[in-house]
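Much of what follows relies on a compact textual record of a protein's fold. Think of the row as the fold of the chain written in a discrete alphabet. An example makes this concrete, so a full record is given next.


***
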Amino acid sequence: MDVLRSLVSTVGHVSCISILATTHLMISGLDFTARSIVRVISITTMAKIEQDGRIPHAERVRTFQDTSDLIVHRPNTGADGGTGPDQVMDEEETLKATVAHAKKTHPNFHLLGDTEKLTELAHTLISNEFGGANPDLLADDFQFLFPVVGPLTKENFVEAFSNFKVREAFPTSQANFYNFRVDPLEPNRIWCMTRGQYEHLGTLQFGPSSFPATGKKINLPPQCFSMSFDEAGRCYKLTGGYSVDRSVGDTKGLGGMFGIITSLGGSLPFAEGRPWKRSLLWEALSLRAPQIAMDWKKCFRHKEKSQ
């Protein structure tokens, strides 16, 4: 009976894999064709997307990338049960080393590694809607870089903030930022986490869509943010909206405004704004194919036990 069940299951899995793989190839072919045609039209008509020519800011203060011996590790944290190289960094000692190294090339960068000052700057930025309410906190070459959106320029970001009016829809919202930590490997950058809670008390306008107040409380998943500051103490790069646990919250794993829209029952027309869904080929090759082997292994194991 177990052999028959495994045989039927295998036929089912193989059929599903064939359908998934064939559909993937068809979609990939259409995707390639569409993008190729669009590329030709864009070149010939000079219909360029301005954002595509914008290069995201890389690290401005390089440390371990150039000199790996700056990293100090905690003893007895080796891989492979302790026999391999140590894996856990001593953050305090590493920060001292990277700051000393960075100041050789940035002697006037007094913010480097200054946890108190960088935390204060981050708090100020957050309380001013990341600079949307006070653009003077942002560097002229500021970039807003989220998982899908960006990089936006300072002008783009301030304009988007002034048009968005999220606070009108969620006047009591609290982002609940915590765990502010200076990056020991990039000492002008500070990281933090957030687990925001929003209460839908006003109308949310998102493009052509309108979401009247529902009174619903929305809990977002934990998200990671970072703020990088220049020598004048202005933010030149803001990253965030990166969900680190899609099983938490009411947004099906989505962070930022995409998550809020999803929680309110909305659905955006593009895949980047919708909850994660596995690809056809991932299901075919990473789930169904291995499942066939697992099913037969269970079958033979059960058969051996019954003998």
